[in-house]
Amino acid sequence: MASQKIFRSGSCAEVLKRFLTAGGGVKSWSLRRTLLAVLLGLTLALWVGSAAIVYVEARRESQELFDQSLIETGHLLLSLVEKDAREHALTGPIDLPLRGHPNPHQYLLFKVRDAQQRVLYRNDAASDIALSRSAPDGLSWTSIAGQRWRLFSLWDPQRSLQLLVAEPTSHRDDISRGFFYRIALFGLLLVALATIAIWWSIHRVFRVLQASADEVSARTPDELTDVHVYGAPSELHPLLLEINRLFGRVRHSRDNEQRFTADAAHELRTPLAAIKTNLQVLQRARSADEREEFIAALGASVERATRLVNQLLALAQLDPQSQAETALAPGDLAHVLAAQGAQWQALAAPYPLSLAVNVAPAPCALHADSLQVLLRNLVDNALRYTPALGAVEISCGVEAGRSYLRVADTGPGIAEQWHARVFERFVRLGGSQVPGSGLGLSIVRRIAERHGAQIVLGAGLQGRGLAVTLVFPAT
Question: What is the pTM of this model?
Answer without folding.
Answer: 0.45
